TrEMBL record:
Residues 1-24, 494-517 are annotated as: Disordered. The chain crosses the membrane at residues 162-184, 204-221, 233-254, 260-276, 281-297, 407-431, 461-484. It comes from Sorangium atrum. Residues 1-21 have a biased composition (Low complexity). This is Oligosaccharide repeat unit polymerase. Keywords: Membrane, Transmembrane, Transmembrane helix.
Amino acid sequence: MPSLRLPRARGAARAAGPAPARRTKTPLGRITATLLVGTLAALGPILEGALGDGRGWTIGLLLLLAAPSLARAGGPRFHPLDPETYIPATYFLSVAYSPVLRLLMSREFSLSSHETAAMRVAYAGAVGCAIACTALSRRQETPDTQRMVPMHRPKATLDQDWATIIVGVLGLGLVATWIVTIGVGRFFSLNYASNHLEADGKGLLLGGWHFIGVAVVYLLLRAASLRKAGLAVPRVISLAGLCFFASFLLNTVMGRRGPLVWLVLSIALAVHAYGIKIRRVWLAVGMVSIVFYGFFVEGARAQQGKGIDAQISSASAYLDRIENPLEIGELQRVYANLVTIVNEQPPIISYPGESWVNAFLILVPKPLWSERPLGLAQQYALWTAPDLARRGAGFAMGAATEGYLNFGLAGTAIEIAVFSAFFFMLPLLVASARGSPLLVRATAVNLASFAYNQFRGELTALLKIAVSLGIALLAVLVLTSVVAHLRRGMAALGPTRKSSGRRQRDPRLGPSSALGR
């Protein structure tokens, strides 16, 4: 008598399987973990009261930034590409690297009173960052490969592939248009400062870089999903991805190291979120390469526009002059601005929250509103160096500094928490979710890759990046529909031609073979 087999429920299937060798500890609930990390906020003032001279704030800050990695949903782990480690680390670089290095290198193991006041502000930001990263921590999921590679067209170049390539080409067109407005010959002879001045008010054109960035990461993930399914990658995807990536080298010619670094970081974050393991040794090699690249471009800027030989000689001389490679001038300048703001209290905002309001107003294109408000960095430049400000210069204003200017220590904690949660943590969680489409993953990691750049920047710049990436995402979705409509229209014409051919076929020739169809 045949037995009746009924499908088991998922829970029953798990129950029927072999019992685990040992029980693993259940990770802390998010609420409990967040409360525990929140209690660490009291540690900084206690340690500073006991140790003084900035030592307590520094030790407390380091403990807070390590806490999300220890309290992460998947269990304690310090992986540089995990959001619970990556986001606090980028905040540390933006505001605390220089004072910590100075503290360790000082004979008295102490900071000055001005620097101690700045570290108090940095500590408030660390509280916001730690709480946001811990509260939002989630386990990484295995991507749904079947969704990434449609089974009905596994080897085909998809409609969205073509749409993404078109958006990448549009991005190249926007950047090329900006270069044409300058003049191709003049563009390659500009120095670094003049190059920045030419970019003022042309954010719509420079947003093309974000279009290209989304295309690069999407095409990489598309190739990875095909290889994971054991399929060959269409040549058009490989060639387009390589060409778009190579276009970012133009930023090096312009004296800008950031865009290429953010693109490489976007790729690393995307691959990690997709579940492809990157050995830590390669991450270390990549970090050393990025630091060397940064130093090289910094040295070449002095002779930018004077020929490649002069720039290489300048970069080589700059590398020879470096006495301590741990001292990074860019980070020192950002921290120095924080120290100045905290101790001198410059009147560069009229009312609390002004720069946050202006951040949204500045999104209006300058050609449409020539008198739009100035960014915080430009207002600070007007106060500290009016001559440079008149030439369009601005000084990097960290997010911690902006929050402090608006609402004091509470403003710093709020701004860093908002940055960490909505612009960096949530995008990385979306990028690592099982069912996230490749396009959404690519857009999300492009936004999250700017964590360090935006912790040392202000809200208005981050909003511009988010808007540019949102436009790129929308453009791909619209073009995907257009490409799909065109493909269906062409497919509808195919059967008509075939049927007419069959009617004209001489019946004496017999039926056509299946191989010839």
